[in-house]
Amino acid sequence: MPVHAFIDESVRDQRYLLCMTLVAPARLAPSRRELNALLLPGARELHFKKEKEPRRRQLIDRIVALDVVTVVYVGSCTRKTEEETRQKCLERAVFDLLAKNAHRLVLDSRDHRDVLDRKTMQRALGYRPSKTELTYEHLNSTAEPLLWISDAVGWCFGAGGHWSRRTGRLIEAVVSV
Q1: What are the residues whose beta carbons fall under 8 Å from the beta carbon of 133, sequence distance 6 or more?
Q2: What is the pTM of this model?
């Protein structure tokens, strides 16, 4: 079955974590509704780093109940090699998405750095863009609630301990890059 993918990242302790959430087409609208229902009055997005601990626990418990899976791509990095590590993780994620016959990939926008992702996507797809069903775009997380799942899972995985255990049933694989 084709899937849609949503990517966000987290950097912790010289580890680059690219978190990809996979959602079946039939679960897109219901999952967005459930995520939007978690917003506090006046909020436009969920961003795990900005939440207080009790709210994080509440949010992750609700997120883990969604019918989605995630894959976490992990690479070692320094401040100087963060971008290079991101692009290696993204290239591997695209390879995996092609194997799954994914239809759509949404990446959390990083403004002027989106061009680097586009270059990686073009390189990864090579001659295949017309032979695949995969389309991709960058969106701000205020425009796509499904990016919030990757943000939350990436944060929890990076935090380790009980936070990582809380997301265990959502994580389909951890891939070292």
Answers
A1: 2, 101, 102, 103
A2: 0.92
- How many angstroms separate the CA atoms of 159 and 97, rounded? 26
**Tokens 């998405």 correspond to what residue?**
97
Residue where the block lists tokens 């695209």 = 94
Where helices occur in 76-160 by DSSP H, the ranges are 82-99, 114-125, 147-159
Residue with tokens 């939350």: 152
Contact 66, 34 (CB under 8 A): yes
Crossing angle of helices 147-159 and 53-64, rounded to 10°: 120
Instruction: List the chain pLDDT tens, one digit each, 177 residues.
Output: 689 999 999 999 899 999 999 999 999 999 999 999 999 999 999 988 889 999 999 999 999 999 999 999 999 998 888 999 999 999 999 999 988 889 999 999 988 889 999 898 888 887 555 566 788 999 999 999 999 999 999 999 999 999 999 999 999 999 999
Inter-helix orientation angle 147-159/28-36, to 10°: 70
**CA distance linking residue 111 with residue 99, whole number of Å:** 28
CB 106 within 8 A of CB 7: yes
Q: In what order do the strands lie in the sheet with 4-12?
A: 135-139, 104-108, 4-12, 15-23, 69-76, 171-176
